[in-house]
Amino acid sequence: MGRFSSVNYQILEIQQLNLIMEKVMIETKIQWNKPEEVPPPFEKEILVLVGGQIYEGGVWSKYLKPLEVKISKEGPADVPSENSFDFDGFTSGRRNFMDCQFFLNELNGDDEDDPMGGWFSDAIVLWAESPFPGLIAIVDC
């Protein structure tokens, strides 16, 4: 009788575990935006697909890279005497978002080894609100 109740207890634990897993597994939909149509927010965790070209073996190849970033209000055009040159132009409506360059601060730190000094906002192909802010940087698949 003692063994039978132990088996029942184990089955009950597995059933409870399955119920918990069903609650945890949720469907996540991500709405991707084109930055030229809907400019991304500054200083907020977002997902981006950045695009570029690489030259390997005598051939140019295009590529996309997913990142979780925060877009800075500063960029390479800013100098100490003229802070936020592109940001001021963009927020005043004189410049389009895609005509500016802002620093993309990667939240998982991969840009430390980048010889180009990281990514800029004009490389964004698509962006989306981060469904789980901070999680991607922690998990770092």
Structure description:
This protein has helices at residues 2-24, 85-91, 135-139, and strands at 46-56, 59-71, 103-106, 119-120, 124-129. The protein contains three helices and five strands; from the N terminus they run H-E-E-H-E-E-E-H. By secondary structure, the protein is of the alpha+beta class. It has a five-stranded antiparallel β-sheet, with no helix packed on it. Mean pLDDT is 76; it is low at 137-141. The chain has a domain at 46-139. Strand 1 and strand 2 (59-71) form a beta hairpin.
The major beta sheet can be summarized as: 5 strands, antiparallel
Number of helices: 3
Calculate the terminal CA-CA distance, rounded to whole Å. Answer: 47 Å
Dominant shape: elongated
Strand content: 25-35%
Radius of gyration: 23 Å
Q: Which stretches of 5+ consecutive residues score pLDDT under 50?
A: 137-141
The secondary-structure class comes to alpha+beta
Strand order within the widest sheet? 4-3-2-1-5
Overall helicity = 10-25%
What is the average of the pLDDT values? Answer: 76
How many strands? 5
Succession of helices and strands = HEEHEEEH
